[in-house]
Design goal:
The protein is of the alpha/beta class. The protein contains 12 helices and 19 strands. Strands 4, 6, 7, 10, 11, 18 and 19 form a 7-stranded mixed β-sheet that branches. A 6-stranded parallel β-sheet has the order 14-13-12-15-16-17, sandwiched between helices. The longest helix has 14 residues. It starts with a strand and ends with a strand. The relative contact order is 0.16. Bound molecules: nicotinamide-adenine-dinucleotide and zinc ion (2 copies).
């Protein structure tokens, strides 16, 4: 079977034939992926900005079908439709026991400690984030990284729930807890940002301000629920948000690009008493400067959120059901359907193009 091998930072990845070990340990599940989104976090790993070394197969936004499972405690069986969760849930650690499975301390150890793929030269590859390896046609994954979903929802859209949708909608509903009638500013309207916009619409925000350099993405944002937009290339984004809010700033401002200067910008455009939520992930060695007294004197909050602070075991199915009802539009988040060989191009498209999400489709 074929997989896209990540062998060196910033060098084009190549698709090769690899051999996949059969699942052998209790809890291991053989999955045939049907679709995988290409997320900016994959690009950040490839660029060396996030701490996952080469020698693995990337991809963490996938949906597929179970081929076989060994002694599954969660009852996974052949034919089940599943979405991969990139933070596997051990269920035993401090965080899992205290309602924060999205920061499970064992998750990445469970995910990345197995090397089920072997190349023709005999070298072994692990699955990157969560051990998922959704840039392979098939994978062997721990069941802690899989959630069963109803079989009547298209996997080509369900894959987006594996990262962008859960991260963005969860950031609004679970982390920032956006209230009805509020004003929400969103810096960065890529895959995750559009999901933040959809989440804000679901939460009943009265005004949703989409800020992105791309005109096409601002236009998509309007279709997903944004009421206003700002082109930061022609207007100071903070000034524009102040102008739309009688000089106060937004009740909630989300940074969804992953850049320290924009995290600061989100803080500046948050009103006194408001919530600034950081969703984007900048390079690990960067820092942000905030005027020290102002966090206190202006009673602002800065919150970070990973995976939308969701419990994926409940929220994946919840988001599938919202999509089935038409309350979440996943179909229009898929801008391009591509093949495994096109992922290098999808990275370029992500940086320079208009696609919200490129989605790899497997036969
Ligand atoms: N917290 C989490 O759990 C989590 C999960 C997934 C992704 N992420 C992170 O979220 C960020 C966004 O991911 P994505 O997949 O949506 O990326 P993306 O590349 O699809 O979108 C980024 C968007 O930011 C826009 N942008 C770039 N510079 C800008 C600027 N100066 N002002 C306004 N907009 C600008 C781009 O035009 C693009 O639309 C990344 O940092 C990614 O690593 C975080
Ligand atoms: Zn992601
Ligand atoms: Zn845990």
């Amino acid at each position: 079977m074929r997989a896209l091998l990540f062998t060196a930072n910033n060098e084009p990845m190549s698709v090769e034939e690899v051999t996949l070990d059969a699942p052998a340990q209790p809890g291991e599940v053989h999955v045939k992926w049907k679709a995988s989104g290409v997320c900016h976090s994959d690009l950040s790993v490839w660029e060396g900005k996030l701490p996952i070394p080469p020698g693995c197969i990337l991809g963490h936004e996938g949906a597929g079908v179970v081929v076989s499972a060994v002694d599954s405690k969660t009852g996974l069986a052949p034919g089940d439709h599943v979405i991969g969760n990139f933070v596997p849930i051990c269920g035993e650690c401090f965080y899992c026991k205290n309602g924060q499975p999205y920061v499970c301390s064992q998750g990445q150890i469970i995910g990345m400690s197995r090397f089920p793929f072997s190349r023709s030269d005999g070298s072994r590859f692990f699955g990157g984030m969560g051990g998922l390896a959704t840039f392979a046609e098939e994978s062997v994954v721990h069941e802690a990284a899989l959630v069963k979903i109803p079989a009547d929802f298209p996997l080509g859209q369900a894959c987006l729930i594996g990262c962008s949708v859960t991260t963005g909608v969860g950031a609004v509903l679970n982390a920032a807890k956006v209230t009805k009638g509020s004003t929400v500013a969103v810096i960065g309207c890529g895959g995750v940002g559009q999901a933040v916009i959809q989440g804000a619409r679901l939460a009943g925000a009265a005004r949703i301000i989409a800020i992105d350099l791309s005109e096409a993405k601002r236009a998509s944002a309007a279709r997903f629920g944004a009421t206003d937009s700002v082109d930061p290339a022609v207007q100071d984004a903070t000034g524009a948000v102040m102008g739309m809010t009688e000089g106060r700033g937004a009740d909630y401002a989300f940074e969804v690009v992953g850049h320290p200067a924009l995290q600061r910008q989100a803080f500046d455009m948050t009103r006194t008493g408001g919530v600034c939520c950081w969703v984007g992930v900048p390079a690990l060695d960067t820092e942000v400067s905030i005027p020290a007294a102002m966090l206190t004197l202006l009673n602002k909050s800065i919150i970070g959120t990973i995976y939308g602070s969701c419990d994926v075991r409940e929220d994946f199915v919840r988001f599938v059901n919202l999509a089935k009802k038409g309350d979440l539009d996943l179909a229009n988040m898929v801008s391009r359907r591509i093949k495994l060989d096109d992922i290098n191009d999808a990275f370029t498209e992500m940086l320079e193009g208009d696609a919200i999400r490129s989605v790899v489709e497997y036969d």
